[in-house]
Structures are given as C-alpha cells and as structure tokens.
C-alpha cells in the first residue's frame, strides 16, 4: 500500500479516555469548555466541541480491555477516525482485515488495532462545519477591524479536535502502519524521533504526532483542541489556570505547525492543548526534517520550559543559544 491510497479519512472524530479519577476528569472537561451531551454508551460521559468532535470519558477498568488505557492508569483507550462515506469505511475494514482482527459494531463503527496494539476505530464522520465570525486583526496601515473591539472570551469553547500525540519507543516505526496501510502523509519530522503525520493531503498540518517518549512503552501524550484565535487560547488558558489546573507548557508558539498553544496537565494521563492558527497544508506542502535544530518545541513562549523539566531554562535563552550555533 502507498500514500496514494485514499480512504477519505477526515480527522479524529472521537477519543475515548479511561481515567482513574472520574470526577476530576469531568470537571476538567467542563472547565476546558467542552459541552456534555447524552452518552451513547453505558457508564460513560460524552463531551463535544463546536463541530461535534467528541471526547468520551469513563472509569478505567483494567479487567475490561476496551476500558484499559494504553500504557498508563489513565489515558486513551481508543482513537476513532471519521471517514467521508460508507465505501471508504468498507475499504478500510477490508484492508485491515487482511492481517488483523476487525470488529464492526451495531452502529457500523469499524474497530481494530495498529501495529503497537493501540485501539483504532473508523466511522462515518459526525463532525460538521459550523460557521463563526472570522477574527479580524489590525495591521499598520492595513486595518481589518474598524469601529469594533477585539474578541473577549470568558472561557474557551474549543471548535474541534486538532491532533493527538502519542509517546512510543520508536516513532519512525510507529508511523509506518498509518503511512503504508491507511495512506497518511508525513508533514514534518525530527528525524525518526518525532513524526507529524496527517490523514488527508489537504487540511490540518498534522492529526497524529508520534514521539520517542522519555520512558519506555506506548502511552497517550496530549490531545490538542483548535480554538478560534489566539485570544481564545489566552482567555481559555487563564480560565483553566483560575480553576486550579497546572500549566504544562505555554502560552507560546510552536516552531512546527506555527500553532499558538497553551498546554495543561490533565486527569487524562497526559496534557490537553489549546491551539490556534495552525498551518493548513495541501499536497504542495514540503515536509521538513527539523532534526538539526536543538530547540524545536517552541518558536517562543513566556518564560519557560515544560513543567516536567523536560525542556529546561527560559526559551529566550535557549533560542539565543540556538541562534548562536
Ligand atoms: Fe500538539
């Protein structure tokens, strides 16, 4: 199989999380700005973004494989991809059925596993575009927002799930299944230590990011939600901070994908990220290998460094050092 295969995968439709501390997780999701709706499964809680990207939350249960997070007590149990039509769904089931178990449940969702044993599923996409006013910015001599104040947000209301990041032992190996079997494309990479891949030629810079983790094994690292603009990143992050949650990194701007971000430690076994103004790409995007750049996590940030100490020292110093090299 090659990248020419087109299963018309549109993006992440639902992430299923099993957690140790259910009440904390539900409070976090609410503070994050997700909207809780009625769940379609027993004993689980379903939250949505504006475009109906979904997060399902339930009590982790090590006795039930479907409710057992991969690699940690709290974390992701399954990623569900949205596809455009039934023909694509059927084609994916056939492709995966060549060498692994495929289960099609009552509502037609196709369940299987990738080569690392991560649970993956596919269904007709339930996300849909919801129009909203485009944020306008005033540049010198080129004003776009006239006689109107800039947007303010009490808290964020994420528009969509943007991407998922997973820590693994060998990122370059982990992506092969998605590239070779599902037709994903590489957008950028840090050699084979971190690989950003997307499920469709046009659209998001990446939907999945596999990185070599600090600790051995496979585990959820973070989930990113796209918000409308940088104002919503900041207002949303301030609200989360005010509710007692802890910043993991940010606010700042990524070097890769250009997104403005703010990450928080979450009860989901990893971080959740607000992101705005990410690169949008087409088949003409030229992927870059950033392996030679030492400080690639951020283009800039305020003061720091990830709260777990994996990136040390003020970014301004790191950046200056990098520029001197
Ligand atoms: Fe991210």
From TrEMBL:
UniProt key word Zinc: no
Residue ranges constituting the VOC domain according to the UniProt record: 160-277
InterPro entries found in the cross-reference section: Glyas_Bleomycin-R_OHBP_Dase (IPR029068), Glyas_Fos-R_dOase_dom (IPR004360), VOC_core (IPR037523)
Residue stretches spanning the membrane: none
Name of protein: Glyoxalase/Bleomycin resistance protein/Dioxygenase superfamily protein
One term of GO molecular function: dioxygenase activity
Record keywords: Dioxygenase, Oxidoreductase
Pfam families (UniProt xref): Glyoxalase
Organism: Acinetobacter kyonggiensis
């Amino acid at each position: 199989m090659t990248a020419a295969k087109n299963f018309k995968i549109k993006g992440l439709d639902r992430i299923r999380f099993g957690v140790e501390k259910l009440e904390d997780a539900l409070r976090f999701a609410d503070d994050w700005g997700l909207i809780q709706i009625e769940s379609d499964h027993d004993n689980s809680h379903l939250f949505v973004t504006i475009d109906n990207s979904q997060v399902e939350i339930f009590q982790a249960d090590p006795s039930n494989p479907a409710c057992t997070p991969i690699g940690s007590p709290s974390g992701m149990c399954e990623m569900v991809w949205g596809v455009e039509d039934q023909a694509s769904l059927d084609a994916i089931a056939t492709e995966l059925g060549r060498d692994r178990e495929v289960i099609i449940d009552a509502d037609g969702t196709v369940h299987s596993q990738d080569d690392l044993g991560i649970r993956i599923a596919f269904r007709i996409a339930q996300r849909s575009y919801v129009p909203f006013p485009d944020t306008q910015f005033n540049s010198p001599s080129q004003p776009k927002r006239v006689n109107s104040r800039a947007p303010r947000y009490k808290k964020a209301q994420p528009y969509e799930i943007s991407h998922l990041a997973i820590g693994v032992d060998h990122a370059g190996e982990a992506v092969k299944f998605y590239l070779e079997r599902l037709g994903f494309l590489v957008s950028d990479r840090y050699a084979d230590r971190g690989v950003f891949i997307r499920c469709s030629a046009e659209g998001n810079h990446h939907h999945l990011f596999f990185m070599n983790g600090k600790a051995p094994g496979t585990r959820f690292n973070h989930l990113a939600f796209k918000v409308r603009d940088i104002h919503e990143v900041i207002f949303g992050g301030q609200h989360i901070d005010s509710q007692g949650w802890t910043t993991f990194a940010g606010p700042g701007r990524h070097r890769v994908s250009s997104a403005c971000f703010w990450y928080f430690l979450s009860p989901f076994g990893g971080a959740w990220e607000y992101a705005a103004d990410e690169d949008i790409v087409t088949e003409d995007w030229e992927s870059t290998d950033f392996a030679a750049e030492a400080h690639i996590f951020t283009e800039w940030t305020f003061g720091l460094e990830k709260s777990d100490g994996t990136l040390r020292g003020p970014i301004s110093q790191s950046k200056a050092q990098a520029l001197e090299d």
